[in-house]
Specification:
By secondary structure, the protein is α/β, with parallel strands linked by helices. The chain folds into 2 domains: about 1-160, 3-Layer(aba) Sandwich (Rossmann fold); about 175-340, 3-Layer(aba) Sandwich (Rossmann fold). The protein is built from 12 helices and 12 strands.
Length: about 350
């Protein structure tokens, strides 16, 4: 059986879908599994033993195309030469038997249809972020009421294949050079892995998922002064100035993390005692690694999108906006997580 998984982005969503690939590999050990993913998120699938192939695409580049003719010109390594036409030929040549659309968007539906799979499994329209997605699937699943977390909802798509979810596992890559580099960084900074080391991640792809800089600064100062913690502020593209503002507060024990690629970020998350972040990729990576997390949730529901296995530790704003979460509440949650 040849199976295509369509889960394009974002980083946290791809992490949440990892257990689907793991369950398919256990349940259909002879199947050939291909994952279609955005080029930017493809690194999280590097070395995944459940997969036989990763097909990177660039739908963000497609959206930047100015006209329909531009869609057929190379768009920078969309896949093995770049053109959508070549991607379509590659998917057709793979002769997929099954395609699972875990995204529920128009673009993922189009890619699911491009696989040519006779069985195309997706969510019922009311469970899709863009209901038009259901036009591209022919077996539509309504997750059971007990599937409250998005991980459980993704796993519900396995039922038509007779595959049991089994234990939820998150295979993530490990880069030996990155791991050693982070050990060197922590040693030079006088920090010890998992020794009351708190990572703060202030960034997020959406403004309404970012807790205020001044609150992160106040939290960092209290963790250093009242909880004897070491605090490291991590940051991604276009987030350096924000992280620097937090690390530049009055508490001397708050440090700025170095720039990190995915492997280096994973290495830091593995060495943290607690990670504090909004509903964004790093908090889901940390939860997948088993690192304690305090998630900050405003517009998105923690019950569905909280750190896997740690939803009870996530803080849900009563107002629906992150400014409804007070520093005191986050400080208490972090100090509780720090206790053995």
């Amino acid at each position: 059986m040849r199976v295509a998984l369509v889960k394009l982005s974002s980083l946290g969503d791809v992490v949440h879908a990892l257990p689907v690939a793991a369950a398919l590999r256990r349940g259909l050990p002879q199947a050939r599994l291909t994952w279609i993913v955005e080029r930017r998120e493809a690194a999280i699938l590097h070395g995944n033993a459940a997969l036989d192939e990763v097909v990177p695409v660039d739908t963000r580049g497609w959206r930047r195309a100015l006209d329909l003719r531009a869609l057929w010109r190379p768009l920078g390594a969309v896949h093995a030469g770049g053109a959508i036409s070549e991607l379509a030929r590659h998917l057709r040549a793979a002769r997929f038997d099954v395609a699972l659309d875990l995204q529920g968007l128009l673009k993922s539906g189009v890619l699911t249809a491009m696989t040519g799979a006779p069985l195309r499994i997706g969510f019922a329209a009311r469970h899709c972020r863009e209901p038009v997605n259901a036009l591209f699937t022919n077996h539509r699943v309504t997750p059971p009421p007990e599937a409250r977390h998005v991980v459980e909802q993704y796993l519900a798509l396995l039922a038509p294949l007779g595959v049991r979810a089994g234990p939820v596992t998150f295979p993530l890559p490990a880069d030996a050079r990155a791991e050693a580099g982070m050990d060197d960084f922590l040693a030079a900074a006088g920090l010890k892995p998992a020794r009351r080391l708190v990572l703060l991640n202030p960034g997020a792809g959406r403004a309404d998922k970012r807790w205020a800089v001044e609150r992160f600064r106040a939290l960092a100062a209290r963790l250093v002064e009242e909880a004897a913690a070491s605090v490291l502020v991590v940051w991604g593209p276009d987030e350096h100035s924000t992280a620097r503002d937090i690390a530049g507060g009055p508490a001397p024990g708050v440090r700025l993390a170095p720039p990190t690629n995915l492997g280096e970020l994973l290495a830091l998350l593995r060495r943290a005692s607690v990670v504090v972040a909004g509903d964004t990729g790093p908090v889901h990576l940390a939860a997948a690694l088993g690192t304690a997390c305090v998630g900050l949730y405003g517009p998105t529901p923690a019950e569905r999108n909280g750190p896997w296995g740690q939803v009870g530790r996530a803080l849900q704003s009563p107002t629906g906006a992150l400014d409804g979460i007070a520093v005191d509440a986050v400080f208490r949650a972090v100090t509780e997580a720090l206790e053995p």
